[in-house]
Design goal:
heterodimer, A: 481 residues, mainly alpha, Cytochrome C Oxidase, Chain A, 14 helices, B: 183 residues, alpha+beta, Immunoglobulin-like, five-stranded mixed beta sheet, 2 helices, 28% helix, elongated, binds protoporphyrin IX containing FE, binds copper (II) ion
């Protein structure tokens, strides 16, 4: 079973993530207010916010997923506390480096830092190596954590069992828990894309230190950038899903989910599709081989099948006409799955090349990815945070303000997202600090979005206070009850 | 195009929200020992098959219409060279020399004739996005250093078209623009 040390570091992760999330939402609201002409910042400052917000969000929701996996993994096997600590130290260091590069060094190349923009210095000269260094430091931390976790899994389950391949035969003698299967699949994806990041950073370093003797290929660098960026942003969602498989039936008092041949098949396929779907980021690069473009659309389509047919379907079946016990935890999971599905629909529309031709880099893009993050993955992690925080508490009024919190989250979230979707359908560009006169509706929409985002923020603040209070108790308690 | 995309999305999103609400309410009404649907495996199979078929139809209808294949077997009547740079577009009938880049002051193109834009960049990545007179995005490609993307297009109506940069390229990205006149 988990140790007190693990309990404490999990609490610390949760407080850190929620705190940074609040700061990040404030940055998001500032950006929307600037786009709404209520605030008047320098464009470079807006883009510094955008870069900081983007990478910090990716960072915190990735570690939030890992925290949940790590904590629940102890039900099955021993995890490394050291790796957990290393990940925390390096993540926090990385975030500090990032914020220094953007707010002191004024680095603002966007979180995807598309080559060669970071090397065209329009900020303090040291900010570029510091920003790239922040990715390296976080990447090494996450790689350590993921490799350690995978090693621990493989000590208990040989690879073929961890991937649940025995379920392809009739009557398997050993059962692979779905939680292990999904964690394993996701860890393979994470490690692969983090290795991609290491390669990408090495290419940057080679050019940076060569004094002009070596120049990278822009198309190759873009492929590598999205192999890393797209994949990590997607895998962090799957971390949240593993937690659902483990906790959703449990808190609802329903039978535990088992791996079957189709669950095994679905997740093994997911691995392949997830690693090739990133090609859809290069649809508008017509020089990219057409074969890759088509693979991009097909892999992206296919990735939705196992997700819808297995995960979403299982959640719906577990609820439909059953006497499931509802609580804040599984309500958050349930609503999160709905948000994930709806964001996924927005994504499937956008990965259709003919649609992407008129949606690429419009506000449709932040529209769909904010849907499955702000109303999907964030809720998965909040559910885990809430569930974890009440495990060691004597009080019983856990469900206080449930209705209020969920209502604020939904109203705020939907309003904030709709402004992005409408903006995207109106062809408004993403990543514009101010909108040109061609889009008279863009500023009012941005103001509306800021108002709704504030409502969403209110819900997150309540979550933060309630959950952190309990987590602080865990952190500073000496007993081990 | 974009309007039907938005409507399609809102309809699908609304339907999903309804399904989730309906399923949620069904559990509220369920008796103590109701056990849900009798044969989930079979339902799952049909659900997946239908989804697969729908996506398959979508893919086979849309992929052949991808921009890479647009007007592929026709010959353009005009070729416009586009060199993007922080934070402007240079456009010319002649190839643009990267060492001494100059563009023409204005570009006029014929309506309903095939034109080809050969788009590249002299510094970082940019986007070359064409907006029609009602400020709707109608076509785009990326401007990537070291590569030339060929975008073929037939403008249906005469008038003024705006070009905006659709790939984040630095602090003046939001004001990087150009225009075209279609006669
Ligand atoms: C209510 C909460 C949030 C608000 C108000 C917000 C706001 C924003 C805004 C205004 C932008 C810039 C959009 C543009 O014009 O291109 C943005 C970009 C972004 N957001 Fe959020 N956001 C929120 C939640 C999240 C969450 C939960 C994530 C989790 C992954 C996230 C990740 C990102 C990323 C990756 C970008 C792209 C940054 C870039 O273009 O470099 N956001 N957000
Ligand atoms: Cu540009």
């Amino acid at each position: 079973m988990e140790t007190i040390k693990l309990r404490k570091i999990t609490s610390l992760w949760i407080i850190t993530v929620l705190f940074l999330f609040i700061v990040n939402i404030v940055l998001g609201i500032i950006m929307r207010l600037n786009q709404g002409e209520i605030l008047h910042e320098q464009p470079a400052t807006f883009y510094a916010h955008m870069t900081t917000h983007g990478l910090t969000q990716i960072g915190i929701w990735f570690v939030a997923g890992m925290t949940g996996i790590n904590y629940l993994m102890e039900r099955y096997l021993k995890t490394s506390y050291l790796a957990n600590v290393v990940a925390m130290v390096l993540t926090v260091t990385g975030i500090l480096m990032l914020w220094t590069s953007t707010y002191i060094g004024n680095f603002h190349a966007g979180w995807t830092f598309l080559y060669p923009l970071p090397l065209k210095i329009m900020w303090a000269k040291w900010a570029t190596p510091l920003f790239l260094g922040s990715i390296l430091v976080m990447g090494v931390g996450w790689l350590t954590w993921s490799v350690s976790m995978m090693t621990q899994i493989l000590k208990k389950y040989p690879l073929t069992k961890a991937l649940a391949w025995q379920h392809f035969r009739k009557n398997p003698t050993i059962q692979t828990p779905p939680f292990i299967l999904i964690s394993m699949i996701t860890l393979i994806g994470i490690i692969t894309c983090l290795l991609g990041a290491v390669l990408l950073l090495a290419m940057y370093a080679a050019e940076y230190f060569s004094n002009g003797a070596f120049v990278n290929d822009a198309l190759l660098m873009k492929n590598l950038t999205y192999f890393f960026g797209h994949t990590i942003a997607n895998e962090m969602l799957y971390l949240g899903l593993a937690v659902i498989y483990e906790l959703f039936p449990e808190v609802g008092g329903r039978p535990k989910w088992k791996a079957t041949w189709y669950v095994a098949l679905a997740w093994n396929c997911t691995l392949v599709f997830i690693l090739t779907a990133f090609f859809h980021h290069l649809y508008m690069d017509f020089v990219q081989p057409v074969g890759f473009q088509i693979v991009g659309q097909i892999a992206s389509y296919m990735a939705s099948l196992p997700a819808a047919g297995v995960t979403v379907f299982s959640v719906l079946v577990a609820v439909y006409r059953t006497s499931i016990k509802w609580s804040l935890t599984n309500l958050l999971f349930f609503i999160g799955v709905a948000g994930w599905v709806i964001g996924g629909l927005g994504a499937v529309i956008d990965v259709t090349i003919t649609n992407n031709f008129v949606l690429h880099n419009t506000l449709w893009v932040p529209a769909h990815f904010h849907t499955y993050n702000a109303l999907g993955n964030v809720l998965f992690s909040l559910a885990f945070f809430h569930w974890f925080s009440i495990q060691f508490s004597e009080k019983t009024d856990f469900e206080k303000l449930t209705k209020l919190k969920l209502t604020l989250l939904l109203i705020g979230g939907i309003g904030f997202l709709l402004a992005f979707y409408i903006g995207g359908a109106e062809s408004m560009p993403r990543r514009y600090s101010n909108y040109p006169a061609e889009f008279p509706m863009a500023a009012p929409l941005a103001i509306g979005a800021a108002v709704f985002a504030t409502i969403y923020l209110a819900a997150i603040l309540i979550f933060f206070f309630q959950i952190s209070k309990r987590c602080l108790n865990i952190l500073f308690s000496s007993s081990s009850h | 195009m974009q309007n039907s995309i938005l409507i399609l999305f809102l309809v699908l999103a609304g339907m999903s929200a309804l399904v989730f609400t309906f399923v949620y309410l069904s559990s509220k009404k369920a008796g103590k020992d109701e056990q849900g649907i009798p044969n989930p495996l079979k339902t799952r199979f049909w659900f997946l098959l239908i989804l697969f078929v729908i996506l398959g139809i979508f893919a086979s209808v849309t992929i052949p219409r991808s921009p890479y294949f647009l007007f592929a077997d026709e010959t353009p009547v005009r070729v416009i060279h586009v060199s993007a740079m922080q934070f402007a577009f240079l456009m010319s009938d002649k190839a643009i020399d990267p060492k001494n880049p100059v563009g023409e002051a204005s570009i006029e193109l014929p309506a309903n004739k095939l034109v080809e834009f050969r788009v590249t960049s002299l510094d970082v990545n940019h986007g070359f996005a064409i907006y029609d007179q009602s400020n709707r995005l109608i076509a785009q490609t990326q401007a990537m250093p070291g590569y030339v993307n060929r975008l073929r297009w037939k403008f249906k109506e005469p008038g003024n078209y705006t070009i905006l940069c659709l790939e984040y390229c630095g602090m003046a990205h939001q004001v990087m623009r150009a225009s075209l006149t279609i006669k």
